[in-house]
């Protein structure tokens, strides 16, 4: 049976006086591949930053396993965020470091593992993302798709409970994007993790998304939530249908 893993409760997000989204309420179950959707500038990345502890809510709470992230102390919040693996749209890897050094960073910072255990774990993580033997390569020496997989290897270094991705397949050709989707599914299953993703890639949304929220920039709140395939079939909101059908509503009625 599915269990609630993450809860967004009455969340309002703002930069100074400028409210970006308000009254957000939704839950994410353990094992979900949750998609944050909506048009450009509606606040998707801002929402993700609130979920990973980078931005403080103007109002409301983010809860993990029923533990509130913003009404606890800094130390407790850090303990929570250590259970997250995050990859960003750009600059995920440090260019002056080899893949091995990049992946070693979280392991050296947050664990007391020996040098040898760290090397072994790095090899294991690289193998998991299909980059066995690439330890000594620099990010500039591998393709864009490989760099995204290497960033994933770093994000899973500490066996996270939740994996966050901001536009994971941006800039990838359709086949590499599809392979990345498969990898995300595989990692979700092998880690037993929950996945939260910001993406506009409809193919990915329908292929791997199990749950979602749709943010609207005009009303500044969520206007739909649920399985993206069910939203496509049943949601009667014009804005959601426009998005999910790439502006082509001919087939929706
Ligand atoms: N650090 C910041 N300070 C002030 N305003 C910001 C900041 N970051 C983002 N914004 C504004 O907040 C709004 C939401 O931005 P955000 O990046 O979250 O949107 P998004 O939905 O992820 O956009 P996109 O799909 O284009 O990446 C935008 O109007 C943006 O200009």
From TrEMBL:
Record's protein name: ATP-binding cassette domain-containing protein
Molecular function GO terms recorded: ATP binding
PANTHER family the record matches: PROTEIN TRIGALACTOSYLDIACYLGLYCEROL 3, CHLOROPLASTIC
Keywords: ATP-binding, Nucleotide-binding, Transport
Location of the ABC transporter domain: 6-244
Highest taxon of source: Bacteria
Keyword Ion transport annotated: no
InterPro entries documented for this protein: AAA+_ATPase, ABC_transporter-like_ATP-bd, ABC_transporter-like_CS, P-loop_NTPase
Pfam families membership: ABC_tran
